[in-house]
């Protein structure tokens, strides 16, 4: 069994037939993405679904409104979150703070490669679209992005690229 806390996360491709909740909040990063269009198509006519477009997961006012909406929501409300990986985990961790549990949150990832990276050298969290290698914007270390993912941080662990090569040679 995979370690849920440190392995690469899995996402759903589409919400078709996945959830049967009494009420849905659908939180979209970009209403023009294919997945978002599909979700809107599926839920727009559903009186039990509320579609929320939240382009910036750090928008304090929008997040406050979201937290209020969840406070007023009845039990059995599910959240469907659609966006890039950075967005998904920022929002998921907010929703957990609002009292939802993981099973009530469905993450749908758009094709964008944007994600959050955690530099293990200086503990800096930053966004990147890099696949394997990038430089830490804070300590300037050349980093290798590992597949290990922290759900708590919503970030991939990145280690010194050279150290990783040495590790690979010796194991
Ligand atoms: Zn760093």
UniProtKB/TrEMBL annotation:
Pfam families in UniProt: DmmA-like_C
Family matches, as InterPro entries: DmmA-like_C
Domain Dimethylamine monooxygenase subunit DmmA-like C-terminal as annotated: residue spans: 116-159
Protein name as annotated: Dimethylamine monooxygenase subunit DmmA-like C-terminal domain-containing protein
Species the sequence originates in: Acinetobacter qingfengensis
